[in-house]
Design brief:
three-stranded antiparallel β-sheet; about 800 residues; alpha/beta; four-stranded parallel β-sheet
Amino acid sequence: MPAVFLGVRHHSPACARLVERTVAELRPAQVLIEGPAEMNGRLDELLLGHELPVAVFSHYRDGQRAATSWAPLCDYSPEWVALRAGRAAGAEVRFIDLPAWHPAFAERTNRYADAEARYAEATERLCLQFAVDSSDALWDRLFEVEPDGGLAERLDAYFALVRGDAEADAGDRARETYMAAWVRAAVEAAGDRPVLVVTGGFHQPALRALAGSGARDGADGDGWERGADGWPVVPAPPDDAMAGSFLVPYSFRKLDAFAGYQSGMPSPGYYQQVWEAGPEAAADGLLRVVVERLRARKYPVSTADLIAARSLAEGLTALRGHPSPARIDVLDGLAGALITDDLDQPLPWTGRGTLTAGAHPAVVEMVAACGGDRIGRLHPDTPAPPLVHDVAARLTTLGLDGGPEATYRLDLTDAADLERSRVLHRLRVLGIPGLERTAGPTHGVDPMFTERWEARPALGREAALVEAGAYGATLAEAAAVALTGRTRGGAAEADALAGALFDAVLCGMGGFSEQLLGELSSCVRELQVSGPLGEILATALGLWRHDRVFGMARGPLLAAVIDGATERLLWLLEGARGSSGVDFPRLRAVVAVRDAVLHAPELLSVTREVATGVARRISEDPQAPVDLRGASFGLARSLARVPGSPGVSGDPAEVVRAVARTGADALGDWLAGLFALARDEVTGVVGDDSDGPDGGVESLIDVLDGLVGALSDDEFLSGLPALRQAFAFFPPRERDRIAARLLERRGVRGSSRSLLRTTADPLLIARARALEESVSRLLARYELEATP
């Protein structure tokens, strides 16, 4: 006999009741369900006795792409009810959809994402026809609060209208031809007994047509091979891919559209009550819970407010013609009774999407009460991926399973504690909750040699471990793959790469992640921003030069990163064009290049001569940013002081005078770049105070004193912020020596501190003086000067 098709909406109590009733009445031989066909051999695992919600978590990874997907199930999911009721009725139960790794699910992280949301034109027309604000309110109006009589016919009409003549995308077509192949095989196997097919309603019209066509290869000619048992073969992932599916605990929060869930009904806590006790009891429960939550947060809600909310909800139910209260009736009643001030944004249940910042406190509590806080729990006998067992064994062996109050103080110079640290960092980069580092080194040459880890709420730890199993079978492998993923493609944000590098060090990079370093060295050669790239170079170089804790000093693993970053930075810096102000991240990048050339020349493909030539060209390029020109001048002089390097043209004093002629602001920016790179080499402040570093060359401090003294008051006021910013590169002792030199030039005796420590902000003093002079000029113009 032909198959019976039930088109449902995922996570709908009304559809779940229809499935349960249909199974009881039909007593089918076969129950086919939209779900991952690769789980058919593990249905007993699904029925172990979990506390729902749970989800089938699927993962896939090969050399080109990585994907994860969830198929969530709760008590009132029609798919779960079909599975449970079908088994209880003695039917053979099977999932019939493609595996989650299949390209048909590209870009979809949720198997049960509403297909009709992608083809929403008909839904929008129905919302207008029934005068409702959203598809969720429309669904409640048509199905959830209506009597169950005639529900199947109403659903058929609704999904036929929604599907209409819409052209399904390639992914939906592939899934539908595959599911139709299962339906035809089930009809053949069942003989005269009925077959029940439970799928998303959007797919039902196409499945009915495809399954009835009798064509083995479906409407599009895409054939699906049958196995020896007569059932369609479940596609297998490529040989070089890693793929699998496991059960994970889920939560109502993850099921809630207001938290970003892609499918089915919003407000899972509310619909759980609808499923268990009906819409009347759910409405009463929601009113009570919202008031309790608001009172617990000291939000004033009186008994009169509660009575008003109940009365409004009942009135709206009657006004809208609902036979029993819908979710939107209760929420609108609560909003009308509890919110008296103007709202800056529409009420969230008038549409779909996440709850936005700035929502009214009463709205926040209403949404939270509707969502519920239930968290699923897996049966103890549920199989877990190898990573879960590896983590448990590692934590036990290292004594890191101390429970929810545990605190660990680790000495990183101790081999055992260093290994404990690496394990905890691997858990951290995988996003496994439970422990948080509250103290420890923050970069490769941080002189801190201890760490402190403290217990934190471990909510979701079990699910996070199962999901992390997609990265690998062991903790070391999984952390390496996760870190490598942070360096690839769109995930390779420049600002995050330095963090990924240091995280790899903390995780014990030397032992397991040469691939990660390969990815990093490839990424650094493609970055477009000099600042973050300089941070990467500084981190890698600091570890290579100074690390004595993590085992990276003078090791070969960082060579490719240092070489690639240095070469790329020189290219980026020479291509930089003019901008006002000082770019401090870029200046730090120039410092990192200097240190790499001076202290790690054996790692570089760029010679000292080439780097010096690039620096000299930038310093002489009028189109280059002023601060970068100063830094490049300093870089060239720093490298020129190395024996065998070419000299650098230009007396610093003459170069400074030339820059000063372009304005005091430009002078300050140029000096900031210079002082960031070469203040010792150029100023002569450290060492011989009488001469510059070249001996006999006029001291740059003396030149600057003369240039600043020659500025007009307006020029000085304009240039003072940039000049102060430049001299901020000097530490206090060097600034003290500069001040002493200036006092000596003027023949003034006294402490240099009197020059450095004014009674007020020097910029404020300069502005006050300019204001006084402006007032004096104005008074003189109108002959209003005071009489002596």
